[in-house]
Amino acid sequence: MNKKLLIVPLVLASSTAWAQSRTVSGQILDAAGAPIIGATVVEKGTNNGISTDAAGRFVLRARTAQPRLQISALGYTSQEVGTEGPVAVHLAANSTALEGVQVVGTRSLNRSVTDSPSPVDIIDVRQVTAKTGQLDVNQLLQFVAPSFNSNRQTGADGADHVDPASLRGLGPDQTLVLVNGKRWHQSALVNLFGSRGRGNTGTDLNTIPAASIERIEILRDGASAQYGSDAIAGVINIVLKTSTKELTANANYGAYTAKYRFDDKTFDGGNFNANANYGVAVGQGGFVNATVDFNLREHTQRANVPAPDGIQRREYGDPKATNTSVYLNSKLPLSEKVYAYVFGGINVRKGDAYAYTRFPTIGTDSLGHDIPNPRSNATLYPNGFDPIITSSIFDGQGVAGMRGTFGQWDVDLSNGFGSNNFHYGVKNTLNATLGPQSPTTFDAGGFQLQQDVVDLNVSRNYKTVLQGLNLAFGSEYRREWYALFAGEAGSYLKYPGALNDRPGGSQGFPGFQPRNEVKASRSNIGVYADAELDVTKALLVEGAVRFENYTDFGSNFTGKLATRLKLSDAFSLRGTLSTGFRAPSLAQINFNTVFTNVVGGKPVDILLDRNDGPVSRAVGIPALRQELSRSASVGFTGRAGSVLTFTVDGYYIHIKDRIVLTGTFGSDDNIIGPTLTALNVGQAQFFANAASTSTFGLDAVVANTLGVGIGRLTTTLAANLNRLNVTSVQATPLLAGKEDIFFGAREQAFVKASAPPFKINLTLDYSLGRFGALVRFVEFGGVSLIDYNGDLNRYNPRLTTDVALSYALTNQLRLSVGSSNLFNKYPNFFNPQATETGGAWDPVQMGSNGRFLFAKLQARF
C-alpha cells in the first residue's frame, strides 16, 4: 500500500479540526471579584485545557464547535459553563473541601500559595504527568519540587524496593504524609544501606498511583503543632481525584539508552505503565472515583563502567519491580449539610534486586593456586553467582468518615487503618554449609507495620471578629503494631558437618531468625487547638498548640506562630516560628537482624541489635527518645504586573537528638570488644539518639506567563539552597571518646548528602493549539561521600535536560514523546570496591541510568 495514501487522511483530519476550532477567552474571579490565579479551565470531553494567569484570565483554542468549559480551583466549587457569550465566571468558596492542609488564598502559576503565612507548593499532577517522563510519585516530585529529594537505590537491600524521600534535606521520617488530609501509614522498612535515609523509616509514596492524584500540596514548614509527630520538615498532602462522568486512560513506555553494559543491547530498564480513572456522580454533589494502575519496571545494568579500579559486581543497577494498585475516593451525601466519605487503596509490589557477586575464588595462595570462595560452591556455581533479593510487598489503607455543618461548627470524624507488609526472599543463592545439596531459593522472612487512627476535627469561622477569626480544635488517637517474622531455617542456619567452618544462611541476604522475631505495639493520643485571625485586611496572625502522649516514652508539647503582612495587593511579607518533635518509630525501636555487608570486597556479617536487646544494653545504648526541633522561616511573596509571580522563603531547622544508625564496632574494640566477644558477636551497630543538626536554606519560585505569537509560554524558575551541619555528636558514657566510630565522618557525610547543596529547576512550557513543547533544565549541586577506604568521593554538580513534545491527535487522544536526561549525564566514577553499593558510583540525586526516552498516549472521554 502506498504510504502517502495513509498520510493524506491524517492531514485532512488535522486541517479540518484546526479550521473548526475557535478561540475562547475569559476571566475567573472569586465571589468578591478578585482574580483566581491558576484556576484550571478544561474543554469538556477533550484533553484540551489551560490555567488562568495572574489576572485570572485565560485564552483557549477550543476544539469543538460549541465547547463547554469545566472550571475548577483549589478551595472553590467547580463549575461548568457554556461559551455562547463572554466567559466571566465567579467561583464560590468551597467550605467543605476534604483538604487537610488548609491553604490560605488561591493556587498560583508557580505552584506556591502567595497569601499563605507558610510556604506551600501546589502541584497539578495531571499537568505534570502529561508532559514528563517520570511515572511514579517520587521521581515526579524529584524533578518539579526543588525542596523534595529522592533517588533510586541499588545494592541497598530493602531500600532497593522502597525509594526513600525527604524535604529540605532531612530524614525520610521527618516529613509527614497525608492523603486527603488524613495521616498515612509508614513503610515497615528501616533503611540500612544506600546514600540516604540510613536508620530511617518513611512513607512509600510510590504505593499511591499518580493516575489517582488530582494534586499534591507540599507544606514546606515545621508543622508538628498542627499535624503531630513526623512533621519536622513539613507535610506532603496528596489529594485524590474527584472527577465524575469522565474516563481518563494512559499508556506509557520508556527505556534507558544503555551506555555501560557487558552486552550490545541498545536499551534497558524498560518501564511500562497503564492506568485508567473514572468517576460517577452520587446524589447532589457526591461522587465515587476509582483508579486502576499497573507498572512494570525492568532492571538496568550499570556494572560495566570505566571505573578506575575494576569491577566489584557483575550485576549492578535498578531493581526490577511490578506495581499493581487500585484506589478509590468517594463523597456520599447524607443530607444537605452532612456527607460521608470513604477513600484509600491497595498496592501489591513484586521486586528483584541485585546483591553482591559471589565470585568462585577469593585470590591465590603462595603457590599460585586459586583459593575457593567459602561463600560459593563450585558444583552449583562453577563461575560464582549473583544472588537476587526478592520482595513481596503488600500496602493498603482505607479511611471512612463523616463531615458536616452542625449549627456554625464544621465537624469531621474519621477512622483510618493502614498496613505495610514486607516479605523477603533470596534466589540464585545457596547456604554454603549445605554444599552441593543446598537449595538455591529461600524464604528470608520480613516485617509488618500497622496503624489505626481515629481523628476528630472541629472548626468555626467568626466573620465579625475583626476581619475574620477561624478557630479549630480536635483530637487524634493512634495505635500502631510492629512485627518481625523469621524466614525458613536454611536462610539463617549454619549446619553441622564438614562445611561448618563456612558462613551459614542464604548468601546475599541472610534470613531473619527466630531470635529476631518481635511483636510490639503502642498507642498515642494528641489534642490540638489553633486560631487564625485577620487582624486587618493586611495583617494575618496564626497560632497552634498540640499535646501528645505516647505509651512507650511519655509526652510532648509543641507550638507554632505564623504571620503574613500585605504591604500592597502585589507584595506580602510572611514568617513562622515553631517547635516540633518526632517519636522514634516502632521499627527503629524493635528492628534487629544479622546482615551481610561488603567492605573492601570482603563480605562481613554484622549484628544490628534491637534498642532494648542484650548487646545494646551491655554496651550502654540508652532507650530511644523523641527528636526535638526548633524551626523558623521568613520570606516574601508577590507579583509584578499581571504575568509574573514570585515567592522567596529562608528557613532554619535545628534538630536535637536525631535518631541515626551508628558506625560499626568490632570485637577488637578496646572498650566494648570483650563484651561483644563474650556475647559471640564479631561486629555490631545500633540505633541511637547520636547527633544534633542545624539546617539553613532558601526556597525561591518565580513564574511568568506570556503570549508568544498565538501561543502561550509559561516559564518557571524554582530553586532550593540547603546546608546541613552536624553540630554535635552525643556518644553514650561507655563509648565516650569514640565519637569517630559512634557517628563519625563517614556516617555524617551520608546525612549531609541527603540533599544536594542546591537544586535549580528552569522549565519552559509552550502550547500552541494542538501542539505542546516542554524543556526543563535541572542543576543538581555536588555532594561528598566517604568510601570504605576513608577517601573523599566528590560528586560534582550535574545539569540534566528534559524535553517533551505533544500533539492532540483528536479531541480525546494526545501523544507525547520525549527524553529525560537528554544528553546522557552520569555522576562521577569511583572505586567500586570501596563505594557503599559496590558500583562505580553511589546513588545520588541526579540518578545513574543515563538518557531515558519515552512515549505516552493519553485518552480523555
Automatic annotation (TrEMBL):
This is TonB-dependent receptor. GO terms for cellular component: cell outer membrane. It is a multi-pass membrane protein. The lineage of its organism: Bacteria, Pseudomonadati, Bacteroidota, Cytophagia, Cytophagales. It holds the Pfam family CarbopepD_reg_2. It comes from the Bacteria. Its main location: membrane. Belongs to the TonB-dependent receptor family. SUPFAM superfamilies: Carboxypeptidase regulatory domain-like, Porins. Keywords: Cell outer membrane, Membrane, Receptor, Signal, TonB box, Transmembrane, Transmembrane beta strand, Transport. The keyword Nuclease does not apply. Residues 113-235 form the TonB-dependent receptor plug domain. Residues 1-19 form the signal peptide. InterPro entries: Beta-barrel_TonB (IPR000531), Beta-barrel_TonB_sf (IPR036942), CarboxyPept-like_regulatory (IPR008969), Plug_dom (IPR012910), Plug_dom_sf (IPR037066), TonB-dep_rcpt-like (IPR039426). It comes from Hymenobacter nivis. It is found in: Cell outer membrane.
